Amino acid sequence: MKLLEGKNVIITGASRGIGKGIAEVFAKHGANIAFTYRSSDEKAKALEDELSANGCKAKGYKSDASDFDAAQQLSNDVMNDFGSIDVLVNNAGITKDGLLMRMSEKDFDIVMSINMKSVFNMTKAVLRPMLKARAGSIINMSSVVGVKGNIGQANYSASKAAINGFTKSTALELGSRNIRCNSIAPGFIETEMTGNLSEETVKEWREQIPLKRGGSTVDIANTTLFLASDMSSYVTGQVINVCGGMLT
Ligand code: NAP
Questions:
Q1: Which of 6, 58, 120, 149 is the most buried (most CB within 10 A)?
Q2: So where are the chain's domains?
C-alpha cells in the first residue's frame, strides 16, 4: 500500500543522510518530492534522478534553510512547480560541538540559526498554502539530546529542545485548521554527521543502546512516513523518540 500517493512534500537537507533516506522512502510511497540542500550540487542531481525513477516528480533546490527570505522564495517556487505543499519535513541540521568553555559565539549562533530558526522560517513559509488547504503535516527533526542534554553539545541540544517547544506551540495553534505538527527525536543514527566520531566512541554509543545498534536512516524515514501519512491523523504535538530504547 502506498501511503503518500499524490502528496507533495518538502524535505530540507536531503542531499545525504537522514533527509536522503526520508526522500527515498517517501518516493517509494508515491510522494512528489521537493528537497533542499546547501552545497552538494552533484549529490542533489543524483538524488533527483534516483527519486524520479520511482515515477514521481522530484526536484532539488539549493536553498539555505536559515535564511528567512530564501525559505519564503522556496515555498513560492514549490507552489509554482508542484501546486500544493501537503507535508513539510524540517530536517536540515548541523553540529558544531565543543565544551562550553571553548564554544565560540559564532558556533552557538550558526547552530541555532541552521537547526532552529530554519524551522520557524520554513513553517512560516508553508503556513499560507496549508491554511488555505485546511490540511498539512509538519515534521521537525529534533534529537534525543534536545530532551536529555549532552556534554559538548550545549548549542546543538538547545537548538533541538527549542524545536520541541516550537512543535508543541505550532500543534496547539494550528490543530483547529487540521494542520498537525510533530517532532522526531532520533538517537544515534549512523550518517556523515556521526561519521566524524572515533570508532571507540561509536562502540560506546552502541553498547549504551538497549537494541545494541545504531539506527539507520530507514528507521527514521519510516517514522517520518507514519507522521506524514493519514495513518497518524490523530497524532499532533508529540516528540517521538526513535532511539533503540536509549532514552528509556
Ligand atoms: P548530515 O548527514 O550531515 O546531512 C545534513 C543535510 O542538511 C545535508 O543534506 C546538508 O546539505 C543539509 N544542510 C545543512 N545545512 C543546511 C542549510 N543551512 N540549509 C539547507 N540544508 C542544509 O546530517 P544527518 O545526520 O542526516 O542529520 C539530519 C537531521 O537529523 C539533523 O537535523 C540532525 O540534527 C538530526 N539528527 C541526526 C542524528 C544522527 O545521529 N545522525 C541524531 C539526531 C538528530 P549539503 O549536503 O548541501 O551540505
A1: 58
A2: 8-239
Query: What does the pLDDT look like over 128-184, one tens digit per residue?
Result: 999 999 999 999 999 999 999 999 999 999 999 999 999 999 999 999 999 999 999
Is the CATH code 3.40.50.1980 the one for domain 8-239? no
Distance CA 14, CA 29 (A): 17
Q: Is the pTM of this model over 0.90?
A: yes
Instruction: Say how far apart CA 37 and CA 15 lie, in whole Å.
Output: 6
Query: What is the distance between the alpha carbons of residues 142 and 115, in angstroms, rounded to a whole number?
Result: 9
**Which of 174, 171, 173 has the alpha carbon at shortest distance from 238?**
171
| Confidence at residue 196, expressed as pLDDT on a 0 to 100 scale | 82
Q: How many residues comprise the chain?
A: 248
pLDDT tens, residue by residue, 73-125? 999 999 999 999 999 999 999 999 999 999 999 999 999 999 999 999 999 99
DSSP bridge partners of 37? 62
pLDDT number for residue 133: 98
Residue 69 grid coordinates: 527570505
Backbone angles phi, psi at 15, to 5 degrees: -70, -20
Q: How far is the CA of 7 from the centre of ligand 1 (A)?
A: 23
| Residue whose CA lies nearest to ligand 1 atom number 10 | 13
The residue type found at 110 is I
Please identify every residue annotated as catalytic. Answer: 156
Ligand 1 — pocket residues by CB below 6 A?
12-19, 36-40, 64-66, 91-94, 114, 141, 143, 186, 188-189, 191-194
Atom of ligand 1 nearest to the CA of 214: 40
Dihedral of the alpha carbons of 58, 64, 67, 71, in degrees to the nearest 10? 0
